[in-house]
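Interim report to the steering committee. The following record documents the input for Linoleate 8R-lipoxygenase (1153 residues).
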Amino acid sequence: MMRRLSSVFKSKDKENTKSSPTSAENGATSSGGPVRRLTLGVTKKSTSGTASSNPQVFEGPDHSVKRAGIVGTLESLGKVISTANRPLNTETGDGSYDTKQEQSGLWDDLKALRIKDLETLQMTIKQELGSSNLADDKTMLMEKLIQLVANLPGTSKTRVKLTEVLVDELWGSLEHPPASMLGDKYNYRQADGSYNNIRFPDIGKAGTAYARSVTPKIVQPNPKPDPGLIFDTIMSRENGGFKTHPNNISSMLYYIASIIIHDCFRTSHEDFNISMTSSYLDLSPLYGSNQDEQNNMRTLKDGELKPDCFAEKRLLGFPPGVGCILIMFNRFHNHVVKQLATINENGRFTPPKDNLPDDKKQAAWKKYDNDLFQTGRLITCGLYINIILLDYLRTIVGLNRVNSTWTLDPRIEMERNSKPGTAAGVGNQCAAEFNLVYRWHSCISQRDEKWSEDLYIKIFGKSYKEVTMQELLIGLGKLEAMTPEDPLQRDFAGMKRGTDGKLNDDDLVKELTASIEDLAGSSGANNVPAVLRAVEILGMEQARAWKCATLNEFRKHFGLIPHEKFSDINSDPAVYEKLKVLFDEPDLVELYAGLVCEDAKEPMDPGVGIGPTYTISRSILSDAVTLVRGDRFYTTDYHPANLTNWGVTEVKYDLNVNQGCVFYKLFIRAFPNHFSHNSIYAHYPLTIPSENKKIMEKLGRADDYSWDKPVKVPERKNIVTYDGVKSVLTNAEAFGVDNWRRGLAYLMGKPGANFMLAGDGDFFAERRNQMKECLYQDKWHESVKNYYESIVPKLLKRWSYNIGGTTNQVDVIRDIDNSAHVHFAANVFHLPLKSEENPRGVYTEHELYMVLAVIFIVIFFGDVDPAKTFALRAAGLPVTQDLGQLVEQNVNFISKTSLVSGIVDTFMEENNALKDYGVHMVRHLLKAGLGVHETVWSQILPTAGAMVANQAQVFGQVLDFYLGDGKEHLPEINRLAKLNTAEADDILLHYLLEGIRMYGTFGAYRTCHQNITVNDGSRKVDCKPGDSVFVSFVSLAQDPKIYPDPKKVRLDRPVDSYLVYGVGSHACLGAEASRVALTAMLKCIGRLDNLRRASGPQGEMKKIPREGGFYVYMDKMMGTEFPFPTTMKICWDGGLNEPAPVVDKGKGKKNGA
């Protein structure tokens, strides 16, 4: 708008003084002719016909205010006199006078401008020249422009133009008519694709006619060449044998293409002009193309689909790899709806209450199921479209072969002044021509060719060569009629279903693996399997029935030069000579024959990935953009309000991971026990693995992936009883920490593999003793206790805020719990924390917490969520390296002379109870003779990573218990915390340990090294080498044999009876320090008066249950799961109730009593 406003003043004065109907004041027509103004000066008429004045100078009192009123009166009087003296008008039927008024010129506009108006124009120009399209409304520029326009003369043409610009801009800020509306009818996809365009609901609807993209203007010969002859001469693979794909593309890419074409095209048997599926990429092969088909796919309970099946009958006649992909989407959908129900964002998926009347209860459950199903479909389709754009399309144009993050994403937001053709969410109608464009039969592999030949024998009992066209059509009709309407009852590749209706994972993965390894064929002439001869003949006849344009007409439509010679179509004489015989002229070559028989493009990195024929290469990109950008549910209505925060996050792509490729999410969600987090088969399934190896080696990324074939990983063995847990953790010979060692080596290299927790034996025991001596120095207890009793109140003062009266509020997890442990680690290990006391640091509290939490997850949790492990490790490695290098610099300084060390010591927080403790720890570690690099990467960094997030989780769980199920104990905790005595602190320690026992979720992974049987209570668990064994402390914490009255908080249990810190050689080394620290934190928080959760969901620790009594936690946006608590707000009344400082008379310093 501002650009248009500023351009108005660039008009010439000459153009602004032409007479035309104008708006007086606000553009409305004013009465009267040229205004004559009576003034106190001498008046003369100007050449332009307007009155100009030269007032005489008058010295005396200022009567300007009165003068303005007098002038107005005289002007009105002048108008009356002028009107009275006008002659009668005989030019109009009713004798009325012409009311047109001459416009004032630019000179008059400029004279009306004030100094502040010039400043406004300067601000306008400055904003237009800026890089942002967003306006800073704090400058009041719009209001100042209104002032400017209002101050222009009522006869100003500029004023009218500026008003027009302002109205146009304000109108353009809103859509007319709106593209998005509220309500289930508009927020969810309709089963038949209707209402994608709200104003034209039938656009793209199933059961409507195909569109025509290209007008067929050329008069085509009649009769045309025999379709069978065309196939036999220029299409059939029998004319030269199978040609492999030049870029070693996998059949999986063409399976995706098969799903896409069946998503958008299903020609009616009754009327070839009608498509019985929608014109949108809405995954209708899975969900169905109308309400009946969709209902057949649904369980109609909890939003789920019937397991391991799909709606599209036609795809049962395709190689099973196609169906396997749809089954993966089926499993993903069911995963999504389970998560939606569990997370229940803002109560959106709350199950109906039992006390409803039966009719209302039934309706409520139906809506509950439908809301889950429809939202799950939107999210699943979100992953589907991202796979198409980020995996499929990138491979088509060869972007998978380079380290580039660019991709052709049609959903990009464009400026409002972009071309009208780039509108979004306006709907789509698939064209008949593209039904032909997507028939990539030349690319069918030899394996799939053999599969198709065997299918003929299975259906007809004889070779395809012996099956007539009539037999084929009758046979296919019977086969479709015999196929059960219930997708769950259909046979799929001869695979057997279990009692739960699911197919065997091993069978599905075996088929997928073979499909990924299957080399596709090359595009172009004479490479279509002969078994598809009848299919191709039907396709050509169908194209003729549609009266499609010719190949050259199609090319010209897309801005491509037409083929002038047959050799332009295909440079092989064996092909172009036959084309010449068949079609006589290049302009008469039919669309489908031409699309198949053109030369294929040579691979180009990037640019040409799958080597399609020339015309297809151009047209499919236009169609991809149109399909995606025209779909309202992928553009204007693709947002968290429809998909939920979690849903959008679950399927989004990250350009820092595989340059955005997301296919691996589908594989790993569907088969978490078969595809490892870094399996090349899952991450890049559209190119055969051997070719991927060459690509990744060239790009320097080969080590990021596993090149092993997918195999089933045995399910982990869970040990849950006291005796079982103890027997595993104390038998280091049989159960090792292999997964910890792998994580440490990945993040920290060879030194990381030497960390005390990376293995067993004398070497690691020595490393443990070194750290123990450093950790537990003289007066360590007092140092840790005093530090936490100091940092917690400090953080409470910094982050809490008053919400009315005497009530205060703070996010106790994010700002107090997490931050306190970050400060502790930073001071002990000289981590570069930026704070008020240390402004020269690098990381904020929250940033450093996230880095250390990621380190912990990668090392100790392994595949806590296999679908997210790869991305987490990809993010964790660089941030760990960055932190380690900064710490290494600090430790290197400390290792120098005492003078330099003194300088470094000043970087730490002042009045810090840990100042001497931390410096001594680092220097003690260096004295062990490991060197700076080894000290940092094998001791400091892994220890810091192991302690922060873990300790924060423990205290968060304790608080969650005492603010919830254990809130009856808060008054006593508050009383004890205020006593500030050693005896009271000891009781608080027992409250802490009981809170940990009640709500703590602890466990540890081990890898079995030998055949052994574990006695786990009443059951025996057989373990063999390589098995993953998980010991859980959750259930044993409620074991009455160990903890009498396990549901009660008892303060008489021995401290050493608690196993929360583990047992054996890898028991938590910092257990004693942790108990001191967390007791101090409970003391500081517990003494807050009327401590309680904040009202509403913000006061809850949102957690999602997992197997074995464990949880994952939602972030504050409810968009991402995290292994550790992320947020929970608390309230209290009054101050912090800190104990009064006590003066140490011996030293004259203040210390907390």
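The first strand starts at residue 42 and ends at 45. The committee is asked to note this result when reviewing the revised timeline.
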